[in-house]
Model the fold of this input.
Amino acid sequence: MKCASLIAVISRQLRQMCRQPVYVVAMLVIPLIMALFFLSLLGPGLPDRTPTAIVDLDNSSMSREIGRNLNAMSTINISHSADSYSQAIDMMNSGEIYGFFLIPDNFEQHTIAGLTPTLSYYCNMAYYIPGTLTYKGFKTIAVSTSGAVVKTTLLNVGVDERQVETMLQPIVIQDHPLGNPWTNYAIYLCNSFIPGLIALMVMMITAYSVCIEIKQHTSRQWLSTANGNIYTALIGKLLPQTVIFIIVGTFIQSLLWGYSHFPLNCNPLTMITAMMLLIVACQAFALTVCCIVPNLRLSLSIVSLVGILSFSIAGLSFPVESMYDSIGIFSHIIPLRHYFLIYADQALNGIDIYYSRIHFVALLAFPLVAAMLMWRLKPRLSNPVYIP
Amino acid sequence: MKTFRHWFGSLYRVWRREFSLVLRDEGVLIFFLLLPTVYPLVYTLIYNPEVVHDLPVVIVDDCHTQRSRQLAQMADATSAIKIVGYATDINEARVCMDQKGCYSIMHIPTDYDLNINREKQSKVQFYCDMSLLIRYRAFLAALTDLSLASDTEIQQQIINTDSSPVANQAVILGNPAEGFASFIIPGLLILIIQQSLVLGITMLGGGAYERRRANNGIDPMAVKAPVVATILGKSLCYFTIYIPLIVYMLHFVPIIFDLPRVGSMSQWLPMVVPFTFAAIFMGMTLQPLVRQRETSMIVVVFTSLLFLFLSGITWPRYAMGWLWLAVGDIIPSTWAVNAFTRINSDGATLQQNMWPLIALWILCAIYLTTAIILHKKDWGLKKFR
Done:
């Protein structure tokens, strides 16, 4: 590999990147806009104050107190009140509310009489996050209403107040969400979806920049600039992109952990290395696809389909262990999966780097696979045929 | 009358020509046929296990009493938790967690049983991995049930009551299994319709532009017709192709995978028609901006993620700022995802979703106008002549 020819290929690639606006858009504009989009959209961390309704058929002092207690919950906001069940369902079906709490008629009377009335609450789980938050808020109030009645009864028969508390809840299970004690969705989603987007753009730009040469019949000229050496040609072409993507990726990481103060419980260099490896692995993945199908349209379609599917198959929202084994096994060949696991181990949980070793190795394996398939690409570059 | 007939004649010729263009173009066929048929299956297969259950948990039992063992057994009996082992201390459990042997540690303190017998509150610690929130959610639900069940049992022993004075009943609507596929797939189906249409249409536009560049500004495949007839003819062609696909995706895919489907086709179809046209016209608006068949993919594919979040199915719209609400409002999928989810999963009627229906028709009109304006201008042509 001659240094001069490598520099010639690099400068050739840089000229191409300046001439075609798609490079600027895909490498700078889209990743930065999407990073800002996620950070500003998910800024609040948790979508508190879910709009909900109360259906108070009792209208007693007790039922009104329940209403006040419900409104005091941070997760829900009693924004509507309905006169009947059907009116509340109507509101839910038109999307005004995500759940409602129903207090039956004669609720207070039946409670005092010991007839065990039922408080019911309805949550629209077709919207997962608001549905869950509504459920959590409603359930807390429904259970504590029952507790309040017991407490009053016990106090009236002369039980000591401190003892009543224990009797109501003898066992407390305290949950400690490690690494993200605020259960902040922004921390969770930004750290997985933004790198996923970078991975998608890296793969598409790599496939595009290699195969466009075949389409435009310039691949022979490209190869001759590199003195006929396929490795010089590819390194010269991809290196400028690698550098730009690493700068963009590291900048976005600084937005996450510097500007937004998301937890970073490891040496920042570990995560910067992981980002570099992710970018190189994604380039190698796209290159592998180009070696197998050296056709612009097909390779670009494949990497974009894989790039979009990797958000799901890498287990960013639904765990890989819970997927069908025959599906979950594909997660290993997705570079994003390994970056995500390194992130969870290092940045989120801050455990020893020893436990993430396998994922670093996996990311390094992608370029090796691409290098092994390179022989397929060279004849295609020498005799470019464009299939539309 | 003659011009009227001529206009319809050219509309039909555009429709027919576009059909043959689509069928001869493998790249477009990938988006128009393969994507809408295969993607719903792939996505649903990924998420089809629906819920996470039997998540591995390690117990650190410092109490070693019959009661602490009973708590561990009760935890094991919940659907979310599976006790995979006992650790002697928290450090050993921590190592197991680092090695991904478990996702949570439950620590029962030495005085657990003692405190209950002394009628003092006992505290059990539960340390949970937070890399995926769906796991935490499952754990939390299990813990709530667990503490309620064990509380009731102990209360019965202490105060000798057999039931709580007020019962409570949760009714889960829309997605009674609380499954992940049931939640995300209906929205994704709508999004797939829109994105595949926009990808295919912009790719056709890029192809036409390339043909013009190669032929001195004249597209040999184009039919000579008025601009409005050209746009409507092409749109009707795409719509014809998508009718069976829509029925397959929105009607049969939920049946195949047993997803929520309480709404009837008569309710969602009148909403999906303007949605499809709005998506087509949105694609036609973007068409003149695309200069190359393949570049469209690079700038369109990432928007799937953007539109998914803007639709409010994952992150609710009430928590969005005005800017993103406004951006979401001009995207057809935002309205259709919400209306379809409510009709399909919650059994809402079209009448209850009148506003999305009106919005979709308005978007149709807006995007049709922009498409006509941009196609009339025909930016690229001047350069070649």
Residues 31 and 198 of chain A are 6 Å apart (CA to CA). The beta strands of chain A are 50-56, 76-82, 99-103, 118-124, 171-177.
